[in-house]
Amino acid sequence: METKKKYFIETFGCQMNVHDSEKIAGMLIDLGYEESSSKENSDIIVFNTCCIRETAELKIMAKIGDTKALKKKNPNLLIVVCGCMTQQKGMSDILKKRFPFINLVIGTHNLNELEDYIKEYNYKSKFNSIVWDKEQEIKEDTKIYRTSKYNAWVNIMYGCNNFCTYCIVPYVRGRERSRKVEDIVKEIEELVKENKYKTITLLGQNVNSYGHDFNDGRTNFVYLLNEICKINGDFKINFMSSHPKDFSFELIDFIATHNKMSRALHLPVQSGSNSVLKAMNRRYTAEHYKALVDEIYKKIPGVSLTTDIIVGFPGETEQDFEETCDLLKHCRFSSIFGFVYSRRNGTPAATFENQVPDKVKQNRITRLFELQHQISREELQKMIDNKFEGVIEKDEKGNLILKTFNGKSIKLNEDNLEIGQVRKVLVTDIVNNELQGKVV
Ligand code: 5AD
Ligand code: SF4
How far is the CA of 283 from the centre of ligand 2 (A)? Predict the structure, then answer.
C-alpha cells in the first residue's frame, strides 16, 4: 500500500490564524497529504505565523531555526512560512538570511494559492518568497479541514481599516473586505445541516463594520445576523472581534431578542483612560464603553463579557493605569486577555517618545491580573446553585464538560452523556477555579 505524504502545521496567534490553518490543511489534503502527529515524521511543515507582539515573533523564529536539523536529515522536507509575519516589509529578506533552508515564504494575500504553488513549482532546492502587496479578491471555493467537532469558524470579512496606533494588523492583513451574505449563509447552512455543528463563530478583525464596503445602504452586521438566524437548525452564533466604536444599541437589542445568539461577548476595550484611548486612536471614551456595557447587562441577562487590555502603552501614567483598573471593577468581565504593549515597527506608536519602561509594564500587568482574578473568582462564585444551558463536549483532557451558551465550561462527573447534546446543568461547586456541576 502506498503511504501518504504527511503534513504538520504549527499555528501561532489568533482564531483567524487557527481557521486559516484549517484552510491550509484542506489544501494539503487535496494534494494527497495526511496530518502528522509530529514534525519529525512530516514531508511538509507549515508555520502559520503571527506578528502582533514581539514575543510571538521571537518564538516563531526559534521554532523555524529548530527545523534546520530536520531538513539536514531529510533534504526533501518542505518548509513553508506563511501568515502575518511574512507580510511585514523586509521580512522575506530577514528570513532568507537567517533560514536559507526555508522552501517557501507566502504572504497573507495569496495564501489561497499555496496549493497551486506547491503543485506547480519545485521548491526542494531553493528559497522562494511570494508575498503580494495587494489584497486579492475573496476566493469562495476553498476546502476547509475543520479541527473542532463542536465549533465551526466562518470568516465574514478580512482586513481592518481602523489603524489603532499600536497595531500591525492593518499593514499585514490589508483593508476591510466583506464576504457576500449569500456565500456566508450557504456555508453555514451546510455546517448546521443534520445538527453537525452547534456553534458557529463568525470571524473578522472588526465584525461590527461588516458590509460597510458594499455601500448599498442595507448590508450591515445586524442584517447579516438576521439572515443567519433564519437558517433552520439548533445552533448558536458567536462572533469576534468587536470594536466598541461600532457596537450599536441595535446589535444589543438584536442579541437580546434572538435565541440563536450566544450570550458570550468579547468586546476589546484596551484601556480605561481617555487620554490613552485617544493616543491609541480607538475613537471612543471610557464613558462610552461603560455605557455600552451597562446596556448589555441590562438588556441581555446572563451575558458573560470578556475583553482585551494593553498595559504600558506609550505615555500611560500610573493614573491612566488606575483608570483601567477602575474600568475592570465597573465592567466585571468574566475574564480578560491582558497584554504588555509591544513596539511594532511601522506602526505610529512605535515612534512615540514616551515609551514605558519594561519594569513598569511588568508591574502593571501583574497587578492587572491580580485584580481580574479576584473579579473572575467572585463572578464564578455567583454561578453556584444556578442552572445553565449548553452543549456537552469533551475538554482537552478528555473530561466531559458543559460548554454553556454564555461561554463557561462546567465539569461534569457523569459518564452517560452524549457529546453534542444540549443539556441543562446545575453548578454545584468550584474546585481549583473550575466550575463543577450535574445535569438536571
Ligand atoms: N502590543 C500589545 N498588544 C497588542 N494587541 C494588538 N497589538 C498589540 C501590541 N502592539 C492586542 C490588542 C488586541 C489583541 C488581539 O492583541 O489587545 O485586541
Ligand atoms: Fe488592530 Fe485596531 Fe484593527 Fe483590532 S481594530 S485589528 S486592534 S487596528
Answer: 12
